[in-house]
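Long-time lurker, first post. I've been practising inverse folding by hand and with some scripts of my own, and I keep getting stuck on stretches where the structure tokens seem ambiguous. Below is the full token string for one chain I'm working on. Before anyone asks, I'm not after the true native sequence, just a reasonable design that respects the backbone. If someone could post their per-position residues I'd love to compare against what I wrote down in my notebook.
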């Protein structure tokens, strides 16, 4: 999952006047009374699949008489570009925002309150998805899509090892990894030492809180024994991996490693299968998925729900038309298309059927429902994720033998400095 990261201070500084100056965008036009108008929607590269885009465009035009222009943006530099755009008189009307970013933009006054719209079209959305679209108890965005990690495995290698069923507990999974190690020439698992998205999930599973309030300020909570427990679980996974301890899953792309056919499994997003197939089309039939098993069969491993929200710009002159777009784009029909086409995790029970058409989505759904969550939903958290990421340094240090408490102390001052920025 790509997660664009922002510096909350930069956003707040550039958008300080948005709340006071934003247009209400109200119109007396009905849903079919916007004929000839054009709505601008910013989406990130890779977010809007082809069939979904066509469906939404056609349905939006049929309903409103208006057209929608999707402008694809690149992740590199998006923080500055989006911050600037949202502070201008003619911003994009609707923007895709990473679900860990929304609180920062909402605090800056850059987004429209969409509470009424959420009640109308999203009454059955999973709370774990929707929390990341809220700030201070208000609905400043609507969840578009989110996904969580699953085990993506090589069926051929697992069959060679004599494994005939998917594991349902962490102990069974580790036993299977050991069997692959003993009975095949493949690496059981490719897990780089800085896959902090996976660590996010493990901390969620242990109930750890990465920040805490002290003296009215947010500070690091990485010294919490629960965070150490999450890292210990990570170390247990790493015992089956020969991947570097100082690299993340994109350096190199782990799916391209998997594509070589010598890796038993990845902890991956469903869409990474396409990356593997692009690198080696012959591996397509060997790819399978299952839910990351937890300590017991009743509850999967904790997972981070990473994804994107749709928000309406506070300065948009087309806010009513933008809301009509969201009604179309986030309809159950089009949400189902996103699940089927891109493998995202269903955000409501009504989408369970769509997940059956995508093995990755079907594997992701149980963990999202029972063990899904996000990083701290506070505006200051966005700065913590910025490069260089101190959490990655923490992970590598622990994997190289440093005690978790000592590694936590090493990054504490940096995290606290970032959390202190307003």
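-- Answer (accepted) --
I ran through it position by position. Result:
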């Amino acid at each position: 999952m790509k997660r664009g990261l922002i510096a909350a201070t930069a956003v707040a500084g550039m958008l300080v006047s948005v709340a006071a100056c934003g247009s209400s965008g109200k119109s007396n036009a009905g849903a079919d009374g916007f004929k000839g108008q054009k709505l601008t929607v910013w989406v990130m590269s890779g977010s809007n699949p082809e069939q979904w885009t066509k469906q939404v465009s056609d349905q939006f035009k049929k309903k409103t008489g208006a057209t929608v222009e999707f402008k694809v943006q690149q992740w590199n530099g998006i923080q500055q570009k989006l911050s600037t755009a949202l502070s201008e008189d003619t911003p994009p009307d609707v923007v895709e925002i990473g679900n860990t970013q929304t609180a920062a933009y909402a605090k800056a006054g850059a987004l429209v309150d969409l509470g009424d719209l959420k009640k109308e079209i999203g009454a059955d959305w999973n709370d774990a998805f929707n929390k990341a679209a809220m700030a201070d108890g208000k609905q400043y965005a609507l969840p578009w899509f989110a996904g969580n990690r699953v085990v993506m495995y090589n069926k051929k290698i697992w069959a060679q090892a004599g494994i005939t069923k998917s594991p349902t507990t962490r102990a069974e999974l580790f036993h299977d990894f050991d069997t692959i190690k003993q009975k095949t020439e493949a690496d059981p698992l490719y897990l780089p030492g800085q896959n902090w998205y996976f660590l996010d999930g493990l901390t969620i599973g242990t109930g750890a809180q990465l920040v805490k309030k002290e003296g009215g300020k947010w500070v690091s909570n990485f010294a919490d024994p629960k965070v150490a427990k999450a890292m210990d679980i990570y170390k247990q996974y790493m015992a089956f991996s020969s991947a570097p301890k100082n690299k993340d899953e994109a350096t190199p792309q782990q799916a391209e490693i998997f594509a070589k056919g010598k890796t038993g499994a990845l902890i991956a997003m469903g869409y990474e299968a396409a990356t593997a197939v692009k690198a080696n089309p012959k591996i397509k039939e060997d790819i399978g998925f299952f839910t990351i098993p937890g300590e017991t069969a009743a509850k999967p491993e904790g997972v981070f729900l990473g994804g994107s929200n749709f928000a309406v710009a506070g300065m948009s002159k087309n806010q009513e038309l933008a809301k009509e777009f969201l009604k179309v784009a986030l309809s159950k029909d089009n949400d189902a298309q996103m699940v089927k086409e891109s493998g995202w995790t269903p955000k409501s029970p009504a989408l369970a059927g769509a997940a059956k058409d995508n093995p990755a989505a079907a594997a992701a759904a149980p963990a999202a429902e029972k063990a899904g969550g996000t990083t701290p939903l506070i505006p200051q958290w966005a700065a913590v994720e910025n490069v260089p990421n101190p959490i990655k340094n923490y992970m590598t240090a622990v994997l190289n033998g440093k005690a978790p408490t000592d590694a936590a102390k090493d990054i504490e001052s940096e995290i606290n400095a970032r959390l202190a920025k307003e």
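A couple of notes from the structure itself: Confidence is low (pLDDT under 50) at residues 1-14, 16-28. DSSP finds 20 helices and 14 strands in the chain. Happy to go over any region you disagree with.
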